[in-house]
Amino acid sequence: MHAALSPATFTRRTAIVLAAAALPLALCLPNAVAGTGPDRADVPGTAPTWTSRAHEVGVPGATSRMSFQVVLSLRDAAGAAAVARAVSDPHSASYGHYLTPAQFNARFAPTSAAVHEVSAYLSGQGITVTGVAAGNRWVTASATTRQVEKAFDSTLRTYSYKGRTLRASTSALSVPTNLSSVVAGVVGVTQNGSLRQPADAPPPPSTCSTYWDQHEQVAPAAYGKTSFPTTNCGYTAAQVRGAYGLTALERKGDTGKGVTVAIIDAYASPTIVTDTNTLADSQGEPELAAGQYLETQLGPFTLQDECDPASWNDEESLDVQAVHGVAPGATIHYIGAANCDTGIDDAVNYVLQNHVADIVSNSYGFLGEDGLGSEVALEDSEFVQASAEGIGFYFSTGDDGDNVTQGTPHPEPDFPATDPWVTAVGGTSLAVTASNGYKFETSWGDDLASVDFSTSPSSYASTPPGSFFFGGGGGVSALFTEPAYQRLDVPRGLATLNGSTPMRVVPDVAAVADPETGLAIVVDGVPFTYGGTSLACPVFAAVQGVASQGRRYPLGFANPSLYLLGLVPGVFHDVKAPTSPVAIVTVSGHSLLTLGQDTSLTSTRGYDDTTGLGTPNGAAFILGEHLLG
């Protein structure tokens, strides 16, 4: 999934948009259709399209083994979605009356009979069934290439695609027609070319300012100036709380006390707690109290070569320290997935089956929406269950703007931030005053112009603003139609940017993300400044933790409430494009960065595709959340 500076790994696939007249949140996936034989049916989402742009290079070994998941259909998926909408809608009489995991499973989970039916079929094909996910959500299996081809009436080939060798089916996988009503997808037979990765973006090292424009550095003339503010040293927790208007609330005891915020990442850094306490001590903040940090590791950990555990350690420290800094009274439950692939699905399911928290921060995502096949349907059904249980999932939107610079054929946002059952958190560049106040924000999108010191006088290697460096993700989904909660806030011209059917637009909200105005953290005892929407997501989740304290109902899936609040002036900071260019310079003088230049995404008054509704405006935001619940 998305990483701030990693290469693109997906190609676009054609989506089929389902009508949304009956269901305001429609997932655009094909229905099961007749397969190649009279007694078989194609499995939705298993016909890869990226292979048409790849080069076939070989045939997988007939005895080579693979692990995969057969995803089972929810019973009455429409009914589950209806419950999730009702309990999340402040206008509904069912608002806040969430289901427990047991209640959801009793009504909607796949049956044991379905598990037995699928398992028996796989076993009959010589395939080893290795497990069943909690809640009967999927069956995990292991098989040889030849067994998979026979079981799913398919042909597998290997392809060279964007520098990787990937396995894929040459057509849709199929199952016997008697299984078509219980099989929702198959994940893992066709490789999608990307694994989930964290969305972090450390800036280049430099001497820095502790607040906006504390220090300046000379640079070649740009925008009528020859001196610019320097990059930020890394804001403290107190500065972020102050900028988002939480300081007075904290003094009154509104710190997220009694609220649990879960964080899902791959693996688990052994220094999370000590790093968090080291940072807190250095800033005069409270350490994690006894019982305030919980950790569940869903090991044994695997795929270390593919997933790069070291980068996830940075992510974990950032996530935990951001939540603890903004909501110092909240309990943090860290969930360490076995890997950045199917291990993440297991971690999400663990949260659902055990309801470990009402708020879940997820700072990772796939680069774009294409090529994910059955993974989209699997995750969408998990988020429906989360909403029905009153669990709000928050996802970072990525660090590559509209993703075109990372190789997507045209602008597209990242999944799962585009799923209409999650809250997508975009990014900003945040300016904090010397007294920890809010000065201004721009959308996070930094264009970089390098300084050429070989000329006399020095000049820019390219005319400012230069080239796109990094920025918050956003845009219009090709998978999901416009959810009902967006219809009053999102301009129709934006929702229909890619066609006549209004589609889901992200982000929903935003928070500080630019690593040049990022957060000071500690990783393995060493101080760093970090950013990315990996920062924005836990910051906003922590603000929601503060808003949840003392609330009659847990916030649950928050988007219906957030978009209602978006109609009230002053609840959000409306992040607009600056009236004149805003730029900063590294103190070394090597780079000028122009802020608010986020690829094809644009900041405007009101809702936009860079910062959504905006960033939380302190007491007005918290009061609004309380009045709704």
Q: Can you characterise this structure?
A:
This protein has about 625 residues and is an alpha+beta fold. The protein has 2 domains: about 40-195, no CATH class; about 215-629, Peptidase S8/S53 domain (Rossmann fold), CATH 3.40.50. The chain contains 15 helices and 32 strands. Strands 13, 14, 15, 16, 18, 19, 20 and 26 form an 8-stranded mixed β-sheet that branches. Helix 5 crosses helix 9, helix 7 (about 270-285) packs across helix 9 (about 310-325) and helix 10 runs parallel beside helix 11 (about 375-390).
Q: Summarize this, please?
A:
Helices cover 24% and strands 25% of the residues. With 629 residues, it is α+β, with helices and mostly antiparallel strands. The protein is globular and about 75 Å long.
Topology:
Layout: E1 40-42, E2 55-58, E3 65-72, H1 77-88, H2 101-108, H3 112-124, E4 128-132, E5 138-144, H4 145-151, E6 156-161, E7 164-169, E8 174-176, E9 183-187, E10 197-198, E11 216-222, E12 225-229, H5 237-243, H6 247-251, E13 260-266, H7 272-283, E14 293-297, H8 304-307, H9 309-326, E15 331-337, H10 342-354, E16 359-362, E17 364-365, H11 374-389, E18 392-396, E19 423-432, E20 438-443, E21 445-452, E22 459-460, E23 467-471, E24 475-481, H12 492-495, E25 503-506, E26 509-512, E27 519-523, E28 526-530, H13 533-548, H14 559-565, E29 572-573, E30 583-585, E31 591-594, E32 615-616, H15 618-628
Parallel strand pairs: 13-15, 13-16, 14-15, 16-18, 18-19, 19-26
Antiparallel strand pairs: 1-8, 2-6, 3-5, 3-9, 4-5, 6-7, 10-17, 11-12, 19-20, 21-22, 21-23, 21-31, 24-25, 27-28, 29-32, 30-31
Helix pairs in contact: 1-11, 5-9, 7-9, 9-13, 10-11, 13-15
